[in-house]
Amino acid sequence: MARVFPKNVQFILADAVRQEAGGKLTMLGLYSGDVVLLNETLPPALPEGAAGMALPGLTFLVRVLDGQGPFKYRVDLYGPKGEMLGQGMTERILETQPGTTASLVVPVQPFPIPEFGIYRIVLTLNGRPYEFKFRVGHVDPTAIFPHKPAEKTAKPAPSRRAPKKAPAKPKKVASRRA
What pTM was estimated for this model as a whole? Predict the structure, then answer.
């Protein structure tokens, strides 16, 4: 069988990915796109030897959508300054077949965050790298959902019901005298 390197490799971020019976995958906490936003901020000053903060875990689902052959693979994680943060799944074999998708579940627990910025995960198949860049940053929840200060005097909420009509006045009936 001739080896054909993949042209389409997809990376998906989630809090957790679980392999189910029948080849199904269950994803928890799916991140849309390539951005991981946290409500926490990094400490302003870190003690010597401290590495910022960490998420309990972050999982990468790597989908090899084409290609053919057995590939020796490794997965590496790099921080914003290019420093290697971890090696995972080194020197294993990935089998790909035409018309099928091969999936790798790469959990990183805990996921280290020495600083906010652009991180990279690199899948290497027989020496050929496939890279995915993603941003880890801080979001100020008040920027997304601004809090309006409460008014000093409460006003009743407008009613959605139609206003009540005043009762109709009885009509005078002319009487006939004989």
Answer: 0.70
